[in-house]
């Protein structure tokens, strides 16, 4: 059953029971190991096939992202699914204009040196080759229908978690993705005609890797390099 969400600002705490079935330890270990192995295969893809993808799989991944925790349960995100080729062309043109300025010096030498092993440049074919783009917007504040506003809390953290869950769901559905963050990104609000309370957070092309797709030869940090147990 679908229910309509409304802001719960100022409402009294109304607890409800939560009794999920406890997973047996053996099953938990197997599930965790399987997820770890599958996610270790995830790579950021910049060379996409133009083949269509199952739209419902993308919608389900966005629904998964929408289950992310958020500050005061305000869910400060909007996901814009862009399928229209003309709109994707406009986004690519605007993004490449910003990227040309960035790669020409706006990023600075240190940032350009950090990017060099990834093989990136100002040409962004993934924005038009991938059959779909998910443009993620932060809702910096809640905008009432009458124009009044209400503060949102922990917006960056909340939307960042949601994007991580989105990338995970897309990968587990057999789809490839890229987190693209052209800077500045104001053009996305203009191209997609978003309201004044929304600020672009990331552009995520979604599709299948191209037949000739290559990725950088990278090594992830090992668990003992990222984990501290106290």
UniProtKB/TrEMBL annotation:
Gene3D superfamilies: NADH Oxidase
A Pfam family reported for this protein in Swiss-Prot or TrEMBL: Nitroreductase
Molecular function terms from GO: oxidoreductase activity
Transmembrane segments: 159-178
This protein's UniProt keywords: Flavoprotein, FMN, Membrane, Oxidoreductase, Transmembrane, Transmembrane helix
Domain Nitroreductase: 41-208
InterPro entries: Nitroreductase (IPR029479), Nitroreductase-like (IPR000415), Nitroreductase/BluB (IPR050627)
Keyword Flavoprotein belongs to the record: yes
PANTHER family in alphabetical order: IODOTYROSINE DEIODINASE 1, NADPH NITROREDUCTASE
Protein name (database record): Nitroreductase
Organism: Saccharothrix violaceirubra
Upper taxonomic lineage: Bacteria, Bacillati, Actinomycetota, Actinomycetes, Pseudonocardiales
């Amino acid at each position: 059953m679908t229910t309509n969400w409304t802001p719960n600002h100022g409402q009294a705490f109304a607890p409800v029971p939560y009794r999920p079935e406890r997973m047996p330890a053996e099953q938990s270990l197997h599930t965790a190991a399987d997820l770890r192995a599958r996610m270790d295969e995830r790579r950021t893809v910049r060379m996409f096939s133009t083949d269509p993808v199952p739209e419902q799989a993308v919608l389900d991944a966005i629904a998964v992202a929408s289950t992310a925790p958020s500050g005061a349960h305000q869910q400060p995100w909007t996901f814009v699914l862009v399928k229209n080729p003309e709109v994707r062309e406009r986004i690519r043109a605007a993004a490449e204009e910003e990227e040309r300025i960035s790669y020409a010096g706006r990023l600075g030498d240190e940032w350009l040196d950090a990017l060099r092993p990834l093989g990136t440049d100002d040409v962004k074919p993934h924005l038009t080759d991938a059959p779909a783009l998910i443009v993620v917007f932060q809702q910096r504040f809640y905008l009432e229908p009458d124009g009044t506003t209400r503060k949102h809390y922990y917006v960056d953290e909340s939307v960042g978690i949601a994007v991580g869950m989105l990338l995970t769901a897309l990968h587990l559905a057999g789809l490839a993705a890229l987190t693209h963050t052209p800077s500045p990104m104001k053009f996305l609000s203009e191209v997609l005609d978003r309201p004044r309370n929304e600020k672009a957070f990331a552009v995520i092309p979604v599709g299948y890797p191209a037949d000739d797709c290559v990725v950088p030869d990278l090594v992830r940090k090992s668990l003992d390099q990222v984990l501290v147990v106290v």
